[in-house]
TrEMBL record:
<dbReference type="InterPro" id="IPR005583">
    <property type="entry name" value="YaaA"/>
</dbReference>
<dbReference type="Pfam" id="PF03883">
    <property type="entry name" value="H2O2_YaaD"/>
</dbReference>
<feature type="region of interest" description="Disordered">
    <location>
        <begin position="1"/>
        <end position="21"/>
    </location>
</feature>
<protein>
    <submittedName>
        <fullName>Peroxide stress protein YaaA</fullName>
    </submittedName>
</protein>
């Protein structure tokens, strides 16, 4: 099972790992695109106003530009520790046992605007680049990633659970992947799409999928696994699941 997570705008600072080695990341066939983007991002960091415009940053976020300038020299962290925010707080990888963490590193991967795909244990520096960013002189990120990343994801020969947000999913859709929509249900039975807590629920779901010893091979077995874990999951056929949670 491969669980695809969205990245986060916020990143943990620092890192004691060796500098970025693009060729050592998962799916080395993506190295050419990664290299082009990383080099463009470093070059762009030399022009602060242009960086602000391309990355949609305010002057108060100039430290993000400084991070991009040191992409190839900064210390690194495992991807699951680099990304922060609501989803990753709920995932809480630092609280996993050694065996659970090894499973998480193997099963969890992050869809990244800069790297395309990074496994949970891949070591990366802090950076700033979003799915909707447009770097001067380069095609759109979707135009760059779809022909390179699409075949990589399509070639995964196990169940793929795609928890990426829409802007990252379109960079390289995965045919046949299981998707999960989170709905909140009010006491009167009415439902609404969860927005604020969506990431937290997906983080907890990712933690469950990362730590279970089960190996669901299809959407039906995955549905059964989630229900046994006490989750209210609905399945109307196809590869889409709906996670229903009580309204806050």
């Amino acid at each position: 099972m491969l669980v695809l997570l969205p990245p986060s705008e916020t990143k943990a600072p620092g890192g004691e790992g060796p500098p970025l080695d693009l060729g050592a990341l998962t799916a080395p066939e993506l190295t050419p695109v990664r290299t082009g983007l990383a080099e463009a991002l470093v070059a762009l960091a030399g022009d602060v106003p242009a960086s602000r415009a391309a990355l949609e940053l305010s002057p108060k976020q100039d430290d993000e530009i400084a991070r991009n300038a040191t992409l190839f020299t900064a210390g690194t962290l495992p991807a699951l520790e680099r990304y922060t925010g609501v989803l990753y707080d709920a995932l809480a990888v630092r609280s996993l046992t050694r065996a659970q963490r090894a499973r998480a590193d193997r099963r969890l991967a992050v869809g990244s605007a800069l790297f395309g795909l990074v496994a949970g244990g891949d070591r990366i520096p802090a950076y700033r680049l979003s799915a909707g960013s447009a770097l001067p002189g380069l095609p759109t990120l979707r135009a760059l990633w779809k022909p390179a990343l699409g075949p990589v994801l399509a070639g995964v020969d196990e169940l793929v659970v795609d928890l990426r947000s829409g802007s990252y999913a379109v960079l390289a859709p995965v045919p046949g992947a299981v998707t999960v929509t989170v709905l909140s249900e009010r006491p009167d039975g009415t439902r609404a799409v969860v927005s604020h807590f969506n990431k937290a629920h997906k983080g907890r779901l990712a933690r469950l999928l990362a730590t279970t010893t089960a190996e669901p091979g299809d959407v039906v077995r995955l549905r059964t696994l989630l229900r046994r874990a006490g989750l209210h999951v609905e399945h109307d056929g196809g590869t889409a699941l709906t996670l229903v949670v009580p309204a806050h």
